[in-house]
Every structure is written in structure tokens, then in C-alpha cells.
Design a protein that fits this description.
Structural class: alpha+beta
Radius of gyration: 20 Å
Order of helices and strands: EHHHEEHEHEEEEHEEHEHEHHEH
Distance between the termini: 12 Å
């Protein structure tokens, strides 16, 4: 089925209002989750609504928390979200980085103790729209999902990384990926009838490679998805390279920020993010940068494609998907829609009434 983005956003907003969030926060949750669906990153979209509700009811994520600037310097700030929603803490941290970098050329912002902050490319896009280069290292404290290269045991979170580069007169370059071979949300989507996982995305305790979501979640029939039920793990992408980058995400976003790493004994859901922001004009003339950037991107795109393939810049697939889904609606597998209906039902909300 396809549901108009504005209607889907309204439905998610109304669910979280009924769950105790103030309307502005509930609207942000709906808007950012649906924004992930619009770009094709369904793993970070509305499939997470029931999990957010579960975390909220369990006190793992708290509604109405105001992010606190713990340390404030011209080029640096430490922001503590106090376990509030990432959709509230994320914009505060990113906008602070933008303001400091505009004033001083460069800024580093450490965000700790945030609820799930969603698709990290969203924050790189936000900085690029303001004309800034940005780099983001993220971890999830307590979220043991990924096996290091050479292992079958979980030691990492999916540890996302993102970077954005504004292009004068053109669309920005947005690189955004989990350091795991697939994001945990993609395993969740696959388990609910969405896009299947690539072969070998997961690994069993005996070393066998798998594409079965049950490797991560355990038996799937009749239960809510819980990644602690499965005996296996997600694999790191790129063998030792992805494993090494995941380790740096844990250290930079988890240990350095004080948010906590993915080791045992941590809160169930807690994002840390270390972000670097750069004002391009602080490093050289804007005209020279624009010319060099445009020339290189043209050269990049001129590479002869493989048969049946296209040379794409990071961010191009997301922009195309956003345009398509804004026009045609957000596609949702029936099992995902059923979870959304179930989330609204206790509050007297009929999700089907929002579809048109």
C-alpha cells in the first residue's frame, strides 16, 4: 500500500500525542521518521513506531526532555539529551554546531544520552543546507548487534557514520551508512515482509552465514521483535575496514562523549554522536572551492558505467526516492501497517482513516 507522507506523519504524530508527548515533539517524531521513509531508508522510518512506544513506556526514552548544554566554548559544545527523544535533541545539537561553525569557521559538537536519533544523513543534510561541511560519528550504548571481523560474537552497535558536503549551485553530497553490513532496522523490515536481506548479512554462532532475520530476532511468529532473542549477529561491512570504523564510532561517539559504548551494563537505547562542522569559506575562496568541486564531480560522473549500472553520487538515490514517494505515497508492507494500526488502536485512533 502507499500512504501520502503528510497523512502518515499526522498519524504517527497523533499516536505519540496520545502516548504523552507534547504535540511539537510528537510532530517532530512523525516528520523525521517519515522523512527516512521518503529517502528509501525504511529501516529508520515508521517501522520503528512500536519500538519507540515500547521504549517510552519502559522509561528508556523520556518525553519532554530539554537538551542541556553542559560545556560551551566558541568552537565546542557538549550537549546532554538526558535520554529524551533524538528527534528533539538532534536538531538542537546540529543547529548549535552550525551556529558555532558560522561564527568561528569550525566547530565540534558532542551529543550524549539521546534517544534514537534516526537517519544520520538527516543531520548531514541539515548542515549542508546551511552551507556547511559536516562529519558525524554515532554509536548506540548497550546495543550489542554486530560481530567484529573474524568473530561470531556481538561487540558493536551498528555504529552509523555520515558526512555532508555542500555543492554551490547544486545538490549536496550526502554519505550515510551503518558500519554493519545492514542496519538493524533493515533486519526488522525484512522480518515484517519488506525487502529481503542480502546473502551473508548475518552470522550464526557456528560461523554459518545467514540472511534469515531469525538469526538476530529468534523465532518470528507471534512475537514482538527483540534482537536479544536471536543467537547470531549482524556482520560488519567491508570485513576489517568496516569493523575498524565501527570501533572508532564506539570510541568517538560513545567513550569520548561520555554517552557510553555498546558494552554490557548500559542503558538499552542511548545514542551518542560526535559531529564536526566546517564553514568552507574559512578555508579558501568560495569561488575556487565551487569551481574545483564542480569540476571534480563532473569528472566523477563521467566514469564509464558497468553494463546495466549508473554512476551515482552519494545522496542521488535518496533525492530520487524522495521525489517519487512524495508524488506517489510511502509504500508500507502489510505487516508494518498492521503494527501501526495496533499502536493507534488503544487510543481510539483508526489508522485507515488517515490513508486518504
Amino acid at each position: 500500500m502507499r500512504i501520502p507522507a503528510n497523512r502518515l506523519t499526522a498519524y504517527v504524530r497523533d499516536i505519540f500525542v496520545r502516548e504523552g508527548c507534547a504535540e511539537p515533539e510528537a510532530e517532530r517524531i512523525g516528520r523525521f521518521l517519515v522523512a527516512a521513509n521518503l529517502t528509501g531508508h525504511d529501516s529508520h522510518g515508521v517501522v520503528r513506531v512500536t519500538r519507540y512506544v515500547e521504549w517510552l513506556r519502559a522509561g528508556e526514552v523520556e518525553a519532554g526532555r530539554t537538551p542541556e548544554i553542559v560545556t560551551d566554548a566558541p568552537n565546542f559544545a557538549l550537549v546532554d539529551a538526558h535520554y529524551g527523544f533524538g528527534q528533539t535533541a538532534g536538531p538542537v545539537a546540529v543547529d548549535l554546531g552550525i551556529a558555532k561553525a558560522r561564527a568561528n569557521g569550525v566547530a565540534i559538537i558532542a551529543l550524549r544520552h539521546a534517544g534514537h536519533i534516526g537517519r544520520i544523513g538527516e543531520w548531514a543534510e541539515r548542515a549542508a543546507a546551511a552551507g556547511l561541511v559536516s562529519v558525524h560519528f554515532v554509536n548506540v550504548a548497550g546495543s550489542l548487534l554486530v560481530a567484529p571481523f573474524g568473530s561470531v560474537e556481538r561487540r558493536f552497535s551498528t555504529a552509523p557514520f555520515a558526512a555532508g558536503f555542500p555543492v554551490p549551485g547544486g545538490d549536496p553530497i550526502i554519505l550515510d551508512f551503518a558500519t554493519s553490513l545492514v542496519a538493524e532496522g533493515k533486519v526488522l523490515v525484512a522480518s515484517r515482509g519488506g525487502k529481503p536481506l542480502p546473502e551473508g548479512a548475518l552470522i550464526e554462532p557456528d560461523g554459518r552465514l545467514s540472511a534469515d532475520p531469525a538469526t538476530l530476532f529468534g523465532p518470528l511468529e507471534g512475537v514482538e521483535r527483540d534482537n536479544q532473542r536471536g543467537a547470531g549477529a549482524i556482520r560488519a561491512f567491508g570485513e576489517h575496514k568496516g569493523s575498524g570504523l565501527a570501533l572508532m564510532c564506539e570510541l568517538l561517539a560513545g567513550a569520548l562523549t561520555g554517552s557510553g559504548t555498546a558494552g554490557p551494563g548500559q542503558r538499552r537505547i542511548c545514542n551518542g554522536m560526535l559531529s564536526i562542522y566546517v564553514t568552507p569559506s574559512a578555508l579558501g575562496t568560495e569561488d575556487a572551492l565551487a569551481a574545483e568541486t564542480r569540476a571534480y564531480l563532473d569528472f566523477f560522473k563521467s566514469a564509464k558505467p558497468m553494463p546495466g549500472a549508473e554512476v551515482l553520487l552519494p545522496g542521488e538515490p535518496e533525492r530520487r526516492m524522495r521525489a517519487e514517494r512524495l508524488a506517489e505515497g510511502v509504500p508500507l508492507p502489510e505487516p508494518v501497517w498492521e503494527t501501526l494500526l495496533a499502536a493507534g488502536r488503544p487510543h481510539g485512533l483508526d489508522g485507515n482513516a488517515y490513508r486518504t
